[in-house]
Amino acid sequence: MQFPEYRARRVRKTENLRRMVRETRLSVDNLIYPMFVQEGEKITDEIGAMPGQFRYSVDRLREPVKRMVDLGVPGVILFGIPDKKDPLAQEAVKADGVVPRAVKTIKDLAPELTVITDVCVCEYTSHGHCGVVRDNQVDNDPSLELLGEMALAHANAGADVVAPSDMMDGRVGFIRETLDEAEHDTVAIMAYSAKYASAYYGPFREAADSAPQFGDRRGYQMDPPNAREALREVALDIEEGADIVMVKPALAYLDVIRQVRDEFDYPLAAYNVSGEYAMIKAAAERGWIDGERVMMETLTAIVRAGADMILTYHALEAARILAGG
């Protein structure tokens, strides 16, 4: 297979030929749309660092839900923003909290939509950390009870999937046991298994008002240089009962996505996080890149690396393009 007998360009000649030999196919079925829901009424607030993304009050969910359904996006993941915070995140576990109410509303509007809920208390704690704080340290085991209560409140409201993102050790097993004891054995767990302590989360912390008030999260989120550790984390979550595992962020960790894909025959999600989204939007606004092409190339790369599903703020825009709109 040496030149001139083999000419690789032959099958790149036309768009139809390129389509026919394409190895990776991005589909709307790969997409999950993250949404921020907050307490209050008649709220549709654009997030400054994330153009095109909004914080919605529950009464304003009809329009974005309709867009998702019309575009064929199969799933949404919800992040809650309460109206008050405290050290023990009491708003996170309330049956009538903002996320349980949003779950019920979305299920009324679009029963077929898969509703996933983020299970982490950083948006609900006054200190901004992802668990119970004692002596300025996040205390792992007491945090599990809090996360279990939060997951149960979401499941009781009708969530199809709960997604613990806190990175506490043992939380998947604790949540699985909590749900099963409450006869929610059909509620799936999407585990943020390899969640790195990343600088790419900056815009999210503005959106969710969840920045730590002291220290940082490097004591419980993964160290960015580590890849083999990610495989151990994924293995532990699978052993504890995870149904779907995740790598977060996506772009700077494509190698980790590939390694997890090669090692485990489990549904694999990747989170195309807020900083990745914001960089594309900012560069496109300045005319430095073709925003739509870079977006689609980015999402395709995540699937090519091995992800089955992508949590992405680009979901609605990408779905429109995939539909030919």
Explain this structure.
With 325 residues, the chain is α/β, with parallel strands linked by helices. Helices cover 38% and strands 20% of the residues. It has a single domain (26-322), classed as TIM Barrel (Alpha-Beta Barrel). It contains 11 helices and 12 strands. The longest helix has 18 residues, at 140-157. It starts with 14 loop residues before the first helix and ends with a helix.
Topology summary:
Layout: H1 15-21, E1 31-38, E2 44-47, E3 50-57, H2 62-71, E4 75-81, H3 98-109, E5 114-119, E6 132-134, E7 137-139, H4 140-157, E8 161-164, H5 171-181, E9 188-195, H6 202-208, H7 228-240, E10 244-248, H8 254-263, E11 268-272, H9 274-285, H10 291-305, E12 309-312, H11 315-322
Parallel strand pairs: 1-3, 1-4, 1-12, 4-5, 5-8, 8-9, 9-10, 10-11, 11-12
Antiparallel strand pairs: 2-3, 6-7
Helix pairs in contact: 3-4, 4-5, 9-10
Summarize the entry for a quick read:
The protein is an alpha/beta fold and 325 residues long.
Keywords:
two-stranded antiparallel ribbon; alpha/beta; 325 residues; eight-stranded parallel barrel; 12 strands; TIM Barrel
The general outline is: globular
What gyration radius follows from the Cα positions, in whole Å?
A: 20 Å
Structural class: alpha/beta
CATH superfamily membership, which one?
Aldolase class I
The strand order across the widest sheet is 1-4-5-8-9-10-11-12
The count of DSSP E runs of length 2 or more, i.e. the number of strands, is 12
- The H/E string reads HEEEHEHEEEHEHEHHEHEHHEH
